[in-house]
Specification:
Blueprint: E1 2-8, E2 13-17, E3 22-27, H1 29-34, E4 47-52, E5 58-64, E6 70-74, E7 82-87, E8 91-97, H2 105-117, E9 122-127, H3 134-150, E10 154-156, H4 165-172, E11 176-180, H5 187-194, E12 219-223, E13 229-232, H6 254-257, H7 277-283, H8 289-299
Parallel strand pairs: 3-5, 8-9, 8-11, 9-10, 11-13
Antiparallel strand pairs: 1-2, 1-4, 1-12, 2-3, 4-5, 6-7, 12-13
Helix pairs in contact: 2-8
The structure holds guanosine-5'-diphosphate and zinc ion (ZN).
Amino acid sequence: MEGLVIKSTGNWYQVKLADGEQLNCTIKGRLRLRGIKTTNPVAVGDRVTLERVPDQPAGIITDILPRHNHIIRKSTKLSKLSHIIAANIDLALLVVTIREPRITAGFIDRFLVTAEAYHIDAALVFNKIDIYQPKDLKKLQQWSDIYQQAGYPTFRVSALTGENVEQVKAAVAGKINLFSGVSGVGKSALINRIEPGLELATGRISSYNEKGRHTTTHTQMHALAIGGYIIDTPGIREFGLVEFQKHEIAERFPEMRRYMHACRFHNCTHTHEPECAVKQAVEEGKIPVSRYDSYLRIYNDDYLDKELWEWE
Ligand code: GDP
Ligand code: ZN
């Protein structure tokens, strides 16, 4: 039997079968051993094989099918153990606004780089368009152009009036979706427009006990009436955790990917080298200056592969 893990409590998992039936499952010991470097071998979004416990609405997860992607966080800042938050995410949506609270391009770019590192498709949702002034609309147009040209779908919505929310609904239907955004951008309001009545924990800051450890291992996916799911985890701000090397950063910028093969040096860092095709593309206006600036700022963060990126 195969199923989809839709809830994880740390001790047991809720698995949805193809016919909609849901079983409370434990995992087989051998799987626990495989996840030796993680606190949890199985996460929401995982497709698993399972055996039914006779005469009970319960099962035992026997194997995990290959993942397209997964997002993790360190169990503690110093720990070598990581916690898998979710797997097989189809779309990561970053909800931002140009007014109240103002978001920087650098913040958006770090999110997109992280999504690229995790191999997750990303989209931007500009919310609160009902309060944008002419200068905000000008900026909205500039940013939409930049990110659409980079290949990221962008939406302009008002969760308040409902304007264009249908477009976001169409983009998330049938998919496993992760919504991110700093508090105040209207993420809850938008999710409520998409699925009225959902009361998600996404805006909440995860709880720490007195030792500063994460106590929340609880994650679940909420089914949408239009098909698909929204992942709900209090640890969502740790989407900023990435583990990759400096030389990989340029590849996380789709615009840079288009030019970097033409640099004179195969190991060009696109910072100071002569005959750098990336820098030339920036000078010619083919790569937006703000995106290149973000590249430099991320490149110069030397704690990249060790630490959490804090979002707030
Ligand atoms: P969250 O912290 O991202 O979940 O944000 P909320 O959904 O709680 O919204 C934060 C504030 O922004 C609330 O006062 C909302 O009423 C307001 N808000 C949300 N969406 C919109 C919108 O599209 N337009 C306007 N004008 N206000 C909005
Ligand atoms: Zn270069």
